[in-house]
Structures are given as structure tokens and as C-alpha cells.
Amino acid sequence: MTRLKNLLILSSLLITSPILIACGGGSSASTTPPPVVTAQTPVTVTSQAPTFTQNVFESSDRFEAMCEAPRTGSDPDGNRFPDTAGSTLLEKHWIRSWSDETYLWNTEIIDTDPNSIADRVDYFDIVKSNELSETGSGREKDDFHFSEPTEEFFARRNSAASSGYGFRLTSLGPRDENGRSITPRDFRILFTEPNSPASATVNGNVNLPRGARILEVDGVDLVNGSDSTALNNGLFPATAGETHTFRIREAITNIERDITLVSQDIAPAPVNRTRIINTSSGRVGYILFNTFSPFESEESLADAFTVLSNGNVNDLVLDLRYNGGGLVAIAAQLGYMIAGPSRTAGRTSALLQYNEAAGNRNPITGEVVEPFPFIDEGVGFSVDSGTPLPTVNLPRVYILTTEGTCSASELVLNSLRGINYDVVMIGDTTCGKPYGFLPTDNCGRTYYTIQFQSVNDQGVGDYSDGFSPNDSTNQFSEKLPGCTIADDISRELGDEDEALLSAALTYRETGACPVTAAQAKSSSVISGKSYIQNIGAGGVEALNDPFAINAGSYLDATRPEALK
Amino acid sequence: MTSNFSKLWRGLSLIPCAFMACQTTASAQPVPAVLTSADATSLQALKATIAQAMKTNAVQFGKADLTQSSTISAIPTRFALPPGAPQNHASNFALPTTFYLMMDGTGCYVLKKDSTEKIPLTGVSCRPLSR
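Predict the joint structure of the above. Result:
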């Protein structure tokens, strides 16, 4: 399974509530009618059958929308499907030509006769580079190649806020060979959404504090139980207004208690929390920023930076540990809001590079590619176009990361690196995703093929193995000053004793990394990996648990298969 | 007591409105405008016009309240994907295009930023932006 497919499955489950669906399945929370899709009886077309000549390509326009099973009707946007009667062979020829035109590494595709592979999806799957990453890591260069039914694409695109309680889980327990959580399950609260049932305080206790282990759901044993239907129904409610009970064990105190939650329709807050930490050497701003995706993220960030700017902070800790990316324009705004006007004026935040044949033009649109600047004003997602943005205008930033730090989050790191800005990285290696694509439908299948790479003001964008702090043992990633620290789920995010934030504050004071996370602040701090050891989940072996506090683990916990 | 003259004047004053599909108080000089109502029909008509101007099938607007703001930020729907879409794990380079809602003696229209071309609107009711 490719990384993209993993991300597709996982991301769809992060936000949408129906959990007992197959991978890649859409959400039933859609607020718009499903696409009108009907397939006609296949029509055999012989007169238009093209011939295959190795490395000679006709324009993809010739084969576009010539379908084995043309759709009739319209998509959810009201656009009529352009399909005409064609054949699977013509669809495969479209894939071949379109890939030659737009694929980033088009010269590395081994041109294969479309007639030699029957199925269009199987054919698409091989129309990609088989080279390994140029970093020498042994990782496939293109591990993002993917396609899906266009119906599923629309279903996901049109999904609305989903029902839930406002928590995200991580799984610290064992997995099977497919990555599914198996008994004894160990599901923990990774973080909660502000103003949600999960983060509400009842009788002086936060309902679901970070790191709390869920033991029972509606009286059913989550750790060893087999009633996956009851467990999933309780953990992932189908609708708002459902009441479910949970028995939890708090992380540090080990106190067990029962809570009752009523589900709501909840959309994730882009900026989960903002605070100003007073230290003996000045005021430190902290922002937990979890997604660049929704339009609200623009306003949410602007509001957070207004608070910090008005608070006259001397330093900034930007927590991107769970931020999987999204809108690059907002990443470009974020760079400005961190570094200020004098450091960013006239500089490139990101430039898209397409395949060599495309030159300086976007092969998809034909337009000349313009550099993406640092942006100092609203662009209209949720801040009016032209509205000046706030800035803390600082000479350095501390960025907290994990493997869940991906895409546009990495672009912030790379864009600031490109202007020789002082970035201190605290945490773990990021996911390594400098690439992008425009999903493209043909004949009811939506294809994702890597089409561009983003580079910074210095033309650098080779971080396919991610960014790591200088002290990381990862020999293939791009290095930045900072400290490798395991995520710490025993403390709330934004708590000065939480290991990553604590390390950032220590580094800020001393210019050096704490030797271990436990030394970062006080003896009571428990880092993610030592935490596993402390709770007796396998002793020394747990320290090597590949699923300990990483993107895969916290996302996988919400997979439908997780409870099977 | 209302005079016959004022009744006549009031009646005459309604005539232009009837001919202008209820586009109210249009002045001869171009002025920034806002929607009289952000109902689904008006927004759909506005989106359709802007989508055509952007040479795309459908657009999504930013969060601005177009009954209060004359600045329209539009993005092709295919780029406007919510959280949960796999594209969000790629870099989404979508950038809204800015339009301005305007009106003059001929009615309501939109202007693309940095352009002077008037894009006429039908089925959309506007009023001048209050400053």
C-alpha cells in the first residue's frame, strides 16, 4: 500500500465519523446529493483504436473521456460528465499520454504497451518511476501513486463536519502484520478540540485529558473485548446527540473514572490553542496549529498572531507535530507572520517545478509558473483579500515536529530555510513530502500522479526523507538545528512540562538540547517512549515499538480495521 | 395626509426597480456593491458567473459575508478540498482569485482584480456598499 493510500485512508477517518467503512470510503455525512453516476452498457470501439509505438505519444486530449463505461448525468457540482463511448484501451492510452505530459519523473516511466495489461487501474499503477529516492535511503522515490473511484472523491470532498466528541486517538498497543490494533489494545487520547465534549471540564476534571487510556466503551471492554460493533459505535458515533459512556484511566495519576459524552458535529480547529509563556528571559508565544486545510485556518492563524504580536513575545514556539498540511498560501502567510516584512519581502516561499519538458510552464494549465511569495495580507479564504496580516517579526522560531508533520508544514520549514532564517527543530523526523498533484478524473476514476516538487528561495526542495534535528540518527533526512525528542502524551499540549515544548524552552535558554526528554524540565516528565515503559507495555521492548507515538499510530487508531 | 403628487412620485420611483429586476438604487457612477441577500439562488448565480469568468466549472467562495463586503474571493471547487481529502497531504497551491462586486446605472456586475472588464450579473440583487 502506498503512502498516499495510507494517508487517504487515514485522513478520511480523522475527520469523518463513519468508521466501519472500507478503506477510502466516503462519508455518509455528505450535505450534498451524491453524484449522479450511471454506467451505460459497454460499447466496443474499434475504429479509434490507437497503435502503440514505444516512447511516441499522442496528445492526451485525443483519448480524454473516451470511456469503456461512459457516465451520464452530472457530478455534484452540476457539471455534465464529458464521457463518450470508448474503450478500456483508450482509457489506458489516456493514462499513458497524460502521464508523459504531467508526471514529474516522466522520463523514468518504462513505457508499456496499454494492450499488455487488461485493467486500467493496474495499468496506471505501473506508469510511474520505479527509482529509489536520490537521498540513498532506499525509500521509493514515488510512494504516492494512487487512484480511486471518482464517486469516492466527491463523497469525501463534500463531507461536512462529522459527529464525534472532539478527540484524536493514538494506539500504543500491539498491531498485526497489516498494522491493525490487536488485543490488548491501548488507545490513548492524543489531543482534544477546544470547546468540545472531550475537552469539557466536569467536576473539576477535563473529560479526556491527553494521554488518558480508554478502558471501556458503553461497558464493553476496549482492551480485550471482541464486540467491535459496540466499541466502534461508541467511539465513533454516527450522528450528533448520541450519549455514550467511557471508563478511562488518567495518564500520570492512573486514576480511573467514568465519563459520559454526548456527540456533536465537530470541525477541527486549525489553531487548537494559543498561549504566552512568561519566562525569566522574556515572553514566549506558543501556537498549536493542526491543519492548513480549511478556509478558516487563515483567520485562525491571523487571530493567533494578533494575540502574540499584541503580547510582545520575544520568541515563538510553533507546534506542528500533528499538522499534515493543506493550503500552501497559508503556509506562505505563516512564514511572513513569523519572520516579518524585512526578511521576507521579495523572497520566494515556494516555487513549483514540473517535469523538464514542461519548462517554466504548468503542463496541466499551460500557464507560466510564478513563484509563490511570502504573503503579507489576507488572500480571501477567511481573511478579506488585501487585509494586512499581523507579524511577530522575530529572528528565529522553534518548531515542534513528529512524523505527522507533513506537506505544507514542511514547506514552512523549507521556505524559512530558504531565506536563511533561524529555525530550531524540536521533535522527530517529518514525513518528507515536497511533492504535489492535481487529482484528475477520467471516465469515473480519479488519478493522483506526482506532478510537481516545491523548492524554496534557494531552489532547494530535496527533503523526501523529511527534516530532522541535527542530532538525529536518520542519515538521509535534511538537518536543521535542534533536538530529537520523542512525543510526550502524558502532558497537555502547551504545558511547559510537555517534553517537546520543555526542550524548546531549554534550548532557548541554554542553546543546547536536554540529554533526555526526562531532563528537559523535571523528573516528573515522561516522554512518549519512556512512558510506554512505565506503563508496563513491554518493558525494554516497548522502547523499540515502531508504533510508539508517530503519525501512523495516532492515525491508525481510528481506522475501521482497528477494532477488528 | 399624503398628497396626490407624492403618491405619483412614489409610484414613478418604483418603475426603474421593476425594469432592473429589483437591483436597487443603482447610480450612474460605478460604486462598490454588496448582495441584498446571500440566499442560495443569488449565490448560485454569482458563482456561475464567476466560474465562467475563471474558465472553470464551479467555484467556491471564501468566508466573507457578501451582504457586507464587496470583495469576492473565489477558488475553483476542484482545489477547494476540505480536511480529509488526500490532496491535503500534498501541497495544495490553490490561491483565491479576487473579484469586486460593483454597480452602476446599468445594474450589478463584477470586476476581476486588476481588470477593467465588467462581467454582468443576472439574477443577483445588489445595493451600494455602505461606508
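The helical segments of chain B are 4-19, 40-53.
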